[in-house]
Structure formats: structure tokens, C-alpha cells
């Protein structure tokens, strides 16, 4: 894990909190620990299972690089989703936005502008879709579920229209090279580095800035936030912009990964991102969000997929396992929530 | 009254909620065919008592007798089976269902046990509506399309669709026009001649005189008088029963001299259709002004409108002589207003968050450099603000939900103290606060005023307004009917003003 762990280290606790704050800091840290540790425990168990069932393939460096690379695309989307869910919203359109961004950024016309043109287009389309979502939800008073469902349908339709169902091959060397082993930094693929940077920035924004505070406040009690003087609507607009931005970045990563743009990209990403955020500990009702948990959730899901694939188990079994994990995680969290 | 056993006898009913003893040994007996009125101030225990009667709350102690035999009302269905129906103040109708479907909800006439016989339901609903004097309501219409008064009728039809012997009506006239009130009284009269008993809750003494047979007065969870004759008991006696207090509050002294000063908040002709009309108000630094009135008199609405949470239909609000943009909370906060709302948990607090974050939420930008929060400075400032108000525990890192009601209120006050607000709007500041903690809260509010804050206070507890405020505006149905320095008023007088409007 490259992002800071959320519970403070013991030394830090003593240094920054005054004497009478220790007890409560400890309980807070303990509670965060239980959640984070249980997720880490699940991940460790999965690695053990993978190591036992396929010792040679699973623990191979290349395989681990592959797992992390696969986690990167959905991971970036999940960071944005975590913000939206923390604010009490939902974004069902993330997969469709990834698809639309990836095909718009890989048309022949866009590719004429080179590396920067593709990157810029991917991000801009993502932000543009997020802007539409945000305006409809914040100022059009539409329910997030409906507004983003409409975006899901429209963006996918537009993506199909642009590609006519064909795969758009990327011909720009600079982009293709980023997916090759030569570009790895100390053995880490560039995609994973982007994911790490997005994660760290996301963690800092959520936990250390006024933007993060407002997000939590709006999700925890929108009426109280409004009466406390927070511009709830503007905050909601920004949150869907942020989610769109993450989708644009993810689309670019996907272009690097696959060397192409396809209208079927990002299929069901919305469900994977929501599931990862929820098993990570973000409350679906809003008011509490954890980037650390979301990232662990993504890693758990990606690892499961990888282990199943290595063991030649079909995707139907994977789906069943994922469903079971979501239910188990939520039940465990409800237990810990009620005891604290 | 007839010598037969009463229809209902409740004796020694006790019910506690965390921190409050809502009912403390209440006795109530109701005869068949009478209108028995329940009277009492807010928080006296009326709602709890009728919820016990409706089977919605289980009493901790006490017995309930029904036609001479002891019963337990373990659920609303159990109460309904005996023939007890309750019409709550907030109507509990399903707007997306038709009138007939609402009336028969839960006991639909069926064929073969599950096929709803819509025609039969509509026919019996039409008969009920006719009996209630409203044959014009179409049983097939959606309830959501009806007026509030018509919905009330539907609610009543639903109560009568059961084999009912006792109907509880919680402030049924609150939403009605005078004509509709006449119709309501006619219905009540018809019911009682058929032998049905009515437990009638109202704040309006004149209504109680018109239709009531006997009155039971509740105060602080006790029945201080049971079965008084409704028509002949003098108003002064009823008011005295409602107000006489067991708990004496300690109010802080008022400063002997009042700094004259320019008003910090000026309100002119402020109105909101259907809620309150042409309110004029000046508020000076160091002054506490109280708004006294009953529920529904527009008190909370006035505060929320001044604060920008509701848009006025007319009138002007200015702070320091500068007009305030109406309907904008952010403009109000920027101008130096702060609101401690009535529903603290729903409207003010972030229950999952720490005290620090609850206190700093309105001043975050002060601790932030480019959006980056200096958490040390934030915690220090929150601690200073909560210390100044003696918030317990003296540790702002604890989650705000672990605090008592009084300390949660202090957290809200600390929020505005930290923000440096100049006008504090307090809506029921001691709601849900233990009696013992109230005196401390009163002292805090007075001290904030002495330090130069202007305070506008709303409370349904008249002694609180009289004890804390310098000046009192008495509201009745959205209008100020009287203004006077608090020392020149007493509880009797205020209650007379708010209930009867006579002066």
C-alpha cells in the first residue's frame, strides 16, 4: 500500500493530541483499526490462498504487477465514487463515462493531436459528463440515482455511436510505450503509480481539507450542513465533477492498458466501484467515507478475480463469491458499528 | 354521569424515556358518550399518554381497564381491536392510495381472503364520508389530491371504519377553517350521542368549553386535575393548574442598565403566507428578546425566515442597517447570524462527527490555507470555544452523539461563538435538556448577551421566555398581539394572551 494508513501511529497520537485526548483517540484508532485490519486480513488470506493453490503463477512478479495494473483502472474510479457516496449520493454512470471518454479520446481525429490531445480529451469528456450529472442533481434537484442512470444510458449510447461498435486502435507510440515493461519504474507499472497518486491525493482531500469536511457534512446531515452555512448545492456539483474527472483519468489508463478505445469499456464498473467502497467501510447513506478502505476493497476484488482465473474457475463462480463477500462485509460492519 | 363502570380507566401510568420521566403516575377515566379533554403545556405528557392509549408505547407501570376488565395494549392493532382509534396531529395517510384504500388499509373487504373488493370498499367509504358530512369527497380519488381539511375527514373515516368505541383526537382543529371546525364539532356531537367516547386534545380553551364535558389537566407528566367540568371551571383555575410549577428554574440576573446602542438586527413587516404576518422587530447588542406563543403560532418559522432558511413573502431584514438577501442562509451567516434550531439532531449536528468538527463546521475557512485544514489550530479554537461554555466532557475529540442534550446544545452555541456571530437565534434552546442542566444553559445565554451578542429566543415554555428575555413579543396565530418588558408580564397573562387573545 502506498497511501498513508488512516489510523495514526502511536508516536503521532501522543505528539499531536493533548493528554486528555488520548483515550478517545485510542478508541477512534481502535475502531478504524478493526475495519482496516479486517480488510487487510481478508487480503492476506486471499494472498495465502493464491500462494497455496498456484504457488508459481500467483506469486510471480509479473502476475502481481498484472493484479495491481488491473486494480488501477477501477481503483481510480472508486476513489471518485467514494467521495460521491460519502456525500450521500451515488454515481451509476462511471462505467459509461469511462467508455465514452476512452472512445472520444481515441478517434482518428483526436489522435492527430498526439499524446496530450488524447489525455486532454479523456479528462475533459469525463469532467463534462460529471458537470452534467452535477448540474442535474445539485441545481435540477434530480435524485442522483436517476440523473446518473440517465447519464449511463446516454453516454453508452454516444460511445456506441462514435465507434459504430468498432475497436479504435491507438497509434501513438508515447501512449503504447507506457503499457510496456520498459516504462516500469522500479518494477512498478506507470498505471499503478497514477493509481497511487490519485489515492494519496484523494485521501488528503477527504481527510485534510475543507472540501473533504464539507463532503462528509453534506452526507452526514445535509440540512444541518445547509443551516451551518455550507453551500450544499455547489458542493454536490463539485463532487460529481470530481467523479467525472476520476473516470476521465481511468479512461486514459484503460487506453494505455488495452492500446485501444472501445464502447464496451468500463462495463459494470459502477457496481464494482460501489461494492469496493461499501466493503471498504464507506456508508452508503453518507456521512462516513474511507479511501483506505475503498482501495483495499478494490484490491480484494481484483485479487479474487485473479486467483479464480489462475485456477480456471469460470466467471460465474467469481460473481457468486463477490456477492457473498459484499454481504459478509456489510454484516460484519453492522456488528462492529452497533457495538461502538 | 351514569353510574355504570367507565369505558376506560388508566391508573398510575408511568413512562420514562432516557433522561425524562414523561408520565409519572397519570390517572384518566373516560365514560362512554363523553368528550373528555386533555389539557397541558408542551412537554406535559399529552402525546405520550395518547400513544400509550393507542398501543404505540408500553407503559413502565400502571394499569389500563377497558369496560371494567384489565387489558394490555401491546400494539396499535390490539388497541384497534378493542375499539380505540387515534387521529394523530400529523396525518398518517398514504398519499398515493385512494380515499377508499386508505380508509380500509389493513382491513380491506376481500373475497376468498385476498382479492380486494374495491367496489364494496368504495361504497362503505362513501357511506362513512356521508355520515361525516362530506359526501363530496370521491372515494376513488387519491388522498394526495385532497386539501388538508379533507384529509382530516378521511383520517376520521378511517377511525370510524373500525367498530370504534373511543376516538382520540390530537389537536384536530389545528389545520381547519372555522366552518370546518363547526362541522368537526357536529361530528363529535353525533358520535357521542351514539355512545362513542372522544378524548379531545386542544390548546384552545374556547373549543374545550364548546364541546367538552370534562377536563383532565396534565403538567410535568402528572395529572394535576382529573374530570373537572369543562364548561364551568374558570379559565384562571385551568391556567393556574397548567402553570403551577414543581421545579423552580434559576434564571440569571438581568443587567441593571441596558446599553442603548443601535439595533444590530432590524425586521420590518416580515411575512410568510399562512405562517406569520407583518412582524416588526429591533434587536440590540446585549439584549435578549423572547417570542412566546403556542405551537403553530409561527415562532420557529419566524426564526428560520430571518435566518434565510425560508423565503419571506414580504418584508425586510437588515443587519447593521444593511439589507440582508432574503432566503439565503449563507448571506445570513456571513452577516453574523447564527441559528440553534429546534431539532438539534436533525438540523444542527453531524452526529457521526466529533465535537471539534461540529464546532468548526461554520468557520472552517479560518483554519484553512488554500483549503488545507490546520487541524491543530482548529482543535485549539474548538477547545477554547467549548471551554468558554463549560462543555462537558472537556475533550472536543469525543463524538458529539455521546454528549447529553445540554452539552450538545452548547456545541451548537460554541459553533456560533467560534464563528464570531453577533445575532444568535435560539429555537427551543432547552428542548431535551435535563432540568438540572437548564440553569447552566440560561447562564451561558445571558453571559453571551452581556458580552454583546443579540439574542432572539423562541420557547414554548412561557416561564423560560419570561425568566430569560428582557423583552417579550407574544404571538398568536402568526401575529404579535402584545409586546412588553419581561418584568411586566407573568405566566397567566401570557397564557391568556396566547390562548384566548383577550387582553
UniProtKB/TrEMBL annotation, chain A:
Pfam families: BPD_transp_2. InterPro entries: ABC_transp_permease (IPR001851). It comes from the Bacteria. Its main location: membrane. Keywords: Cell membrane, Membrane, Transmembrane, Transmembrane helix. It is found in: Cell membrane. The keyword Transmembrane applies. It is a multi-pass membrane protein. The chain crosses the membrane at residues 34-52, 64-85, 115-136, 183-206, 237-257, 291-310. PANTHER family: ABC TRANSPORTER PERMEASE PROTEIN YPHD-RELATED-RELATED, RIBOSE IMPORT PERMEASE PROTEIN RBSC. This is ABC transporter permease. It comes from Streptomyces siamensis. The lineage of its organism: Bacteria, Bacillati, Actinomycetota, Actinomycetes, Kitasatosporales.
Amino acid at each position: 500500500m502506498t497511501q498513508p494508513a488512516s489510523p495514526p501511529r502511536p508516536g503521532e497520537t501522543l505528539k499531536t493530541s493533548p493528554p486528555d485526548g488520548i483515550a478517545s483517540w485510542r478508541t477512534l484508532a481502535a475502531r478504524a483499526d478493526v475495519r482496516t485490519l479486517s480488510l487487510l486480513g481478508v487480503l492476506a488470506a486471499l494472498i495465502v490462498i493464491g500462494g497455496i493453490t498456484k504457488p508459481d503463477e500467483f506469486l510471480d512478479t509479473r502476475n502481481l504487477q498484472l493484479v495491481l495494473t488491473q486494480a488501477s483502472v477501477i481503483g481510480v474510479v472508486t476513489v471518485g465514487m467514494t467521495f460521491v457516496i460519502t456525500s450521500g449520493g451515488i454515481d451509476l454512470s462511471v462505467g459509461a463515462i469511462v467508455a465514452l471518454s476512452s472512445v472520444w479520446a481515441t478517434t482518428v481525429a483526436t489522435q492527430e493531436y498526439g499524446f496530450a490531445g488524447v489525455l486532454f480529451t479523456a479528462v475533459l469528456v469525463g469532467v463534462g459528463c460529471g458537470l452534467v450529472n452535477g448540474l442535474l442533481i445539485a441545481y435540477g434537484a434530480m435524485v442522483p440515482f436517476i440523473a446518473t442512470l440517465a447519464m449511463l444510458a446516454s453516454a453508452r449510447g454516444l460511445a456506441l455511436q462514435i465507434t459504430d461498435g468498432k475497436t479504435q486502435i491507438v497509434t501513438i507510440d508515447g501512449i503504447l510505450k507506457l503499457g510496456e515493461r520498459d516504462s516500469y519504474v522500479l518494477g512498478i507499472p506507470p498505471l499503478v503509480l497514477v493509481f497511487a497518486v490519485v489515492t494519496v491525493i484523494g485521501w488528503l482531500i477527504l481527510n485534510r481539507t475543507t472540501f473533504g469536511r464539507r463532503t462528509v457534512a453534506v452526507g452526514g446531515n445535509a440540512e444541518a450542513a445547509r443551516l451551518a452555512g455550507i453551500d450544499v448545492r455547489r458542493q454536490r456539483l463539485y463532487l460529481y465533477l470530481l467523479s467525472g474527472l476520476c473516470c476521465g483519468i481511468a479512461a486514459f489508463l484503460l487506453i494505455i492498458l488495452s492500446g485501444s478505445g472501445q464502447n464496451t469499456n468500463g462495463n459494470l464498473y459502477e457496481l464494482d466501484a460501489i461494492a469496493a467502497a461499501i466493503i471498504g467501510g464507506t456508508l452508503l447513506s453518507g456521512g462516513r467515507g474511507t479511501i483506505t478502505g475503498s482501495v483495499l476493497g478494490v484490491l480484494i476484488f481484483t485479487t479474487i478475480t485473479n486467483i479464480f482465473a489462475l485456477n480456471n474457475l469460470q466467471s460465474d463462480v467469481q460473481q457468486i463469491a463477490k456477492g457473498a463477500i459484499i454481504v459478509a462485509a456489510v454484516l460484519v460492519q453492522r456488528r462492529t458499528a452497533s457495538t461502538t | 354521569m351514569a353510574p355504570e363502570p367507565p369505558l376506560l380507566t388508566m391508573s398510575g401510568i408511568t413512562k420514562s424515556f432516557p433522561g425524562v420521566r414523561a408520565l409519572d403516575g397519570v390517572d384518566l377515566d373516560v365514560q362512554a358518550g363523553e368528550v373528555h379533554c386533555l389539557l397541558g403545556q408542551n412537554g406535559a405528557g399529552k402525546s405520550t399518554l395518547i400513544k400509550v392509549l393507542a398501543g404505540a408505547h408500553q407503559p413502565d407501570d400502571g394499569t389500563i381497564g377497558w369496560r371494567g376488565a384489565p387489558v394490555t395494549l401491546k400494539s396499535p392493532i390490539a388497541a384497534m381491536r378493542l375499539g380505540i382509534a387515534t387521529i394523530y396531529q400529523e396525518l398518517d395517510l398514504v398519499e398515493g392510495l385512494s380515499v377508499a384504500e386508505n380508509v380500509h388499509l389493513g382491513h380491506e373487504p376481500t373475497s376468498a381472503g385476498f382479492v380486494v373488493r374495491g367496489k364494496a370498499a368504495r361504497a362503505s367509504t362513501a357511506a362513512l364520508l356521508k355520515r361525516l358530512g362530506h359526501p363530496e369527497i370521491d372515494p376513488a380519488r387519491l388522498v394526495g389530491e385532497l386539501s388538508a381539511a379533507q384529509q382530516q375527514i378521511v383520517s376520521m373515516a378511517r377511525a370510524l371504519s373500525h367498530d370504534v368505541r373511543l376516538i382520540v383526537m390530537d389537536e384536530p382543529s389545528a389545520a381547519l377553517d372555522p366552518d370546518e371546525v363547526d362541522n368537526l364539532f357536529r361530528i363529535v356531537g353525533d358520535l357521542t350521542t351514539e355512545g362513542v367516547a372522544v378524548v379531545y386534545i386542544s390548546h384552545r380553551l374556547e373549543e374545550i368549553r364548546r364541546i367538552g364535558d370534562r377536563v383532565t389537566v396534565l403538567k410535568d407528566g402528572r395529572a394535576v386535575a382529573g374530570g373537572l367540568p369543562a364548561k364551568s371551571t374558570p379559565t384562571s383555575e385551568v391556567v393556574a393548574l397548567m402553570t403551577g410549577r414543581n421545579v423552580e428554574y434559576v434564571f440569571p440576573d438581568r443587567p441593571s442598565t441596558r446599553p442603548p446602542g443601535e439595533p444590530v438586527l432590524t425586521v420590518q413587516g416580515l411575512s410568510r403566507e399562512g405562517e406569520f404576518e407583518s412582524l416588526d422587530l429591533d434587536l440590540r447588542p446585549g439584549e435578549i428578546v423572547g417570542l412566546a406563543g403556542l405551537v403553530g403560532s409561527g415562532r420557529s418559522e419566524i426564526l428560520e425566515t430571518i435566518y434565510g432558511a425560508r423565503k419571506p413573502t414580504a418584508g425586510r431584514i437588515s443587519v447593521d442597517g444593511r439589507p440582508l438577501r432574503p432566503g439565503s442562509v449563507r448571506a445570513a451567516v456571513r452577516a453574523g447570524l447564527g441559528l440553534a434550531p429546534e431539532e438539534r439532531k436533525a438540523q444542527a449536528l453531524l452526529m457521526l462527527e466529533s465535537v471539534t468538527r461540529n464546532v468548526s463546521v461554520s468557520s472552517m475557512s479560518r483554519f484553512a490555507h488554500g483549503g488545507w485544514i490546520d487541524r491543530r489550530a482548529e482543535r485549539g479554537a474548538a477547545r477554547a470555544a467549548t471551554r468558554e461554555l463549560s462543555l462537558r466532557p472537556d475533550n472536543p475529540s469525543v463524538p458529539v452523539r455521546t454528549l447529553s442534550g445540554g452539552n450538545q446544545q452548547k456545541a451548537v452555541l460554541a459553533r456560533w461563538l467560534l464563528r464570531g456571530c453577533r445575532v444568535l437565534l435560539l429555537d427551543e434552546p432547552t428542548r431535551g435538556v435535563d432540568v438540572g442542566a437548564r440553569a447552566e444553559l440560561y447562564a451561558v445565554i445571558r453571559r453571551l448577551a452581556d458580552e454583546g451578542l443579540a439574542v432572539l429566543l423562541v420557547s414554548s415554555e412561557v416561564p423560560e421566555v419570561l425568566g430569560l428575555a428582557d423583552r417579550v413579543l407574544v404571538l398568536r396565530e402568526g401575529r404579535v398581539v402584545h409586546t412588553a418588558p419581561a418584568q411586566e408580564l407573568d405566566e397567566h397573562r401570557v397564557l391568556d394572551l396566547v390562548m384566548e387573545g383577550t387582553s
